[in-house]
């Protein structure tokens, strides 16, 4: 009786497994989930070259391992069924002793070695193709520096500095002009990891080391990524957005980023400007063309061109900006910007000034 109960248990388990396998394709059509701030990127839907290459070899590995799973499970079920206890006389018999059978030993040594060898070849080929890819002339160059808990973004050839959002042009798969983005990865403190699942695999940002990766998106849109290596309390709020645009829109963004913001000439914003430059904000933040030259925090020159504040912790709205200036520890507890203990009037005026940084 116990035997049948366990067989039935196995069947139930298999049913669950088959059900799970069936909902994976059903969920595939959904690119994002979890709201607009923190959508979960679907890594089964790659839309850029390194991610596609990884996806292909992952499918091959999955197919091989699924084959092994089916064969092993079938053999297991067969053996359990065939050599089940058939009656009381079974207790007196000993099964045939096959210890030391050369054939069996050879089979279960050589076949797994061959399979492992195929898996090694498939994966190392993809790794090699990604790491040795030659970038075409005119590839966009970006330098990303990981900080606890935000991303510093540089375009060395364009003279643009930003944070937490990467704008890149869409590339062309066919006869059009290829325009991949080469990314140099560095860290200012601890180890972080760059991961935008639909664009590329993970690459670590290691202190005192220069790592490289590249992306070549084939579809415009906003891609969501995050730091993929635990780096301290606010690791989960170290989100990265990659905004892939048509070449014309990208050029428009570039020329916008190169235009310095106009200093406010009067009113609350002008008071805020004076307050901002009178405070220690300038020791940690940079605003291009002013005395604010700090590099410990994000560059604020074009703050208002960003979609989020605090590396994706909240949408960048005037209310959230004010809340951040009031006390960043409320929105992002433990982040490395201290509560500046500003008076209410200073919070209002500094927020008004920051709103002009666009
Ligand atoms: C001790 C250094 C330090 C000082 C002083 C400081 N900040 Fe910051 N600030 C940071 C850091 C670090 C971050 C990034 C926090 C994060 O996202 O984890 C930050 C983030 C910000 C952001 C959000 C930027 C973005 O794109 O997400 C704003 C706005 C800001 N600070 C304004 C100010 C203002 C205004 C002052 C002065 C009243 C100030 N900061 C003083 C370190 C500092
Ligand atoms: Cu990190």
Strand percentage: 15-25%
Uncertain spans: 22-34
By oligomeric state, this entry counts as single chain
- Give a count of the beta strands, DSSP E runs of length 2 or more: 12
CATH topology of the domain at 140-258: Immunoglobulin-like
Helix fraction, binned, reads 25-40%
Distance between the termini: 75 Å
- The number of helices is 9
Question: Would you tell me the overall average pLDDT?
Answer: 89
**How big is the Rg?**
28 Å
What's the CATH superfamily of the domain at 140-258, by name? Cupredoxins -  blue copper proteins
CATH C-level of the domain at 140-258 = Mainly Beta
CATH architecture of the domain at 140-258: Sandwich
Small molecules bound in the structure, each named once = heme C, copper (II) ion
């Amino acid at each position: 009786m116990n035997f049948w109960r366990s067989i039935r248990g196995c069947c139930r388990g298999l049913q669950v497994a088959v059900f799970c396998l069936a909902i994976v394709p059903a969920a595939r059509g959904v690119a994002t989930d979890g709201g607009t701030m923190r959508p979960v990127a679907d890594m089964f839907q790659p839309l850029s070259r390194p991610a596609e290459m990884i996806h292909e070899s992952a499918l091959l590995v999955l197919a091989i391992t699924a084959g092994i799973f089916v064969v092993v499970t079938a053999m297991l079920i067969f053996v359990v069924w065939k050599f089940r206890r058939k009656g009381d006389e079974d207790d007196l018999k000993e099964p045939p002793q096959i210890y030391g059978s050369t054939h069996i030993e050879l089979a279960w040594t050589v076949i797994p070695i061959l399979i492992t060898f195929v898996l090694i070849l498939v994966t190392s080929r993809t790794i090699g193709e990604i790491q040795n890819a030659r970038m075409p002339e005119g590839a966009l160059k970006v330098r990303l520096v990981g900080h606890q808990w935000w991303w510093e973004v540089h375009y060395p050839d364009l003279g643009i500095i930003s944070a937490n959002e990467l704008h890149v042009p869409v590339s062309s798969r066919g006869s059009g002009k290829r325009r991949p983005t080469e990314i140099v990865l560095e860290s200012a403190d601890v180890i972080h990891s760059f991961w935008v699942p639909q664009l590329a695999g993970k690459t670590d940002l290691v202190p005192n080391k220069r790592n490289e990766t590249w992306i070549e998106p084939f579809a415009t849109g906003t891609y969501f990524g995050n730091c993929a290596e635990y780096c301290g309390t606010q690791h989960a709020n170290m989100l990265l957005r990659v905004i892939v645009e048509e070449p014309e829109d990208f050029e428009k963004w570039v020329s916008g980023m190169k235009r310095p913001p106009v200093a406010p000439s009067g009113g609350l914003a002008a008071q805020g400007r004076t307050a901002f430059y009178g405070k220690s904000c300038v020791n940690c933040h940079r605003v291009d063309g002013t005395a604010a030259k700090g590099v410990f925090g994000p560059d604020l020159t074009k703050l208002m061109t960003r979609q989020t504040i605090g590396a994706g912790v909240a949408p960048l709205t005037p209310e959230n900006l004010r809340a951040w200036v009031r006390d960043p520890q409320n929105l992002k507890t433990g982040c490395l910007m201290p509560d500046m203990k500003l008076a209410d009037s200073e919070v209002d005026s500094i927020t008004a000034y920051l709103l002009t940084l666009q």
